[in-house]
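User: My instructor asked us to take a sequence, write out its structure as tokens, and then describe one feature of it. I'm not sure where to start. Here is the sequence I was given:
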Amino acid sequence: MLFADIDLLDENLDFRAHQWVGVRDGHIAYVGGAAPEEGEAASFGEVYDGRGKLLMPAFYNAHAHAPMTLLRGYAEDLPLQAWLNDLVFPFEAKITPEDCYWGTLLSCIEMARYGCVGFSDMYYHMEEGARAAIDAGVKMNLSDSLLAFDGEGLDELPVKGSLDRLTRDLQGAADGRIVVDCNVHAEYTSNPRAVADLAAYAKERGLRVQVHVSETRLEHEECKERHGGLTPVRYFESLGLFDCPTTAAHCVWVDDEDIEVLARRGVFVAANPASNMKLGSGFAPVSKMLERGVRVCLGTDGMASNNNHDMMQDLYLLALSAKGAACDPTAISPKQALAAATRTGALSQGREDCGYVGVGARADLCVLDVAGPSWTPMTNPLVNVVYAGHGADVCLTMCDGRVVYRDGQWPLVDAERAKAEVAARTRRIVGEL
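Assistant: Let's start with the prediction itself. The structure tokens for your sequence are:
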């Protein structure tokens, strides 16, 4: 595809008007202020009229539980522990592998609709999750959750066999779109032996790690009581988890020393402002983390605590909540917020050639219709993206040079069937409870 006469946000997220961008073989092959030579232009195929549109890097969802579309609207108005133990865990015990496929597929459809091409997922039945992501044409960092409530080591847990199988069968599948990570659900759902074993397993195999950290004050304080004053951050560091590239989700209640550890160990923090506010968990100290060099990215979390995958909504909330929590209107800039949702999110998934518009990058792109009233005037396009835009403004989403959403259509999947399947499966599970 050749995007013709289109405004864009470049590799530095700076605005450039009236550009031409050529995509070939899954990568961006041309960016310029004029059309390429006639022969080269023809090699890109379809010419996309960019007038009234803005081209930018697609979004990367750094923390999700994709099958939880099945729970959308089910567990409401509860704090985290009651939400998990009283409603979510009993529901999840009824979810089958096929349920996970359809729940994940609907998440992929929704994310593509809103300009997102990749997500980091923590759940179960990950073979089915990978199948859904491959069918939808998007990217997935999948991880099967480690849960260890007694004194078990990794070899005694079913997740060990799952990890062996996933890394053998799915690592690098679909031209690298599928990446297998390890994950620890949380400190309060694991034990030190299992965490240390998983850290060693991940380090030996060069795998990335996902983990929930300090989502609530209760989690943070009870960890200190159990482990001689160690916070979740310092507890996981002591067990070697941060010896691997790690994405720590939430980090709402981290303290100053925790932030220093996160920065020093290069941990990515996946902020989840919508979920944290909805569950009443609080506000992550995003501005303090950015100031100290922590790499902050953005996640939607699961659909029982958000309840949608509109990354532009979460982007808006990230910027506003950081300012509000810090009582400082300069706490986060539009560029910092947008980088969290794009380039930093891609890096948190180990995708070095993704998340920016530049020659040689993977063609992970989204196009926004900026002709609507909320985009006028275009005094500062970057400000408009963060504060005035909506996910509904996305009119095209491209992953590795292939269109996965365009003008209300998903060319690779049957969105209507996915919606019907998820609705029916949720009714079945609720009826079984």
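For the description part of your assignment, you could build on this observation: The chain has 17 helices and 17 strands. Try explaining in your own words what that tells you about the chain.
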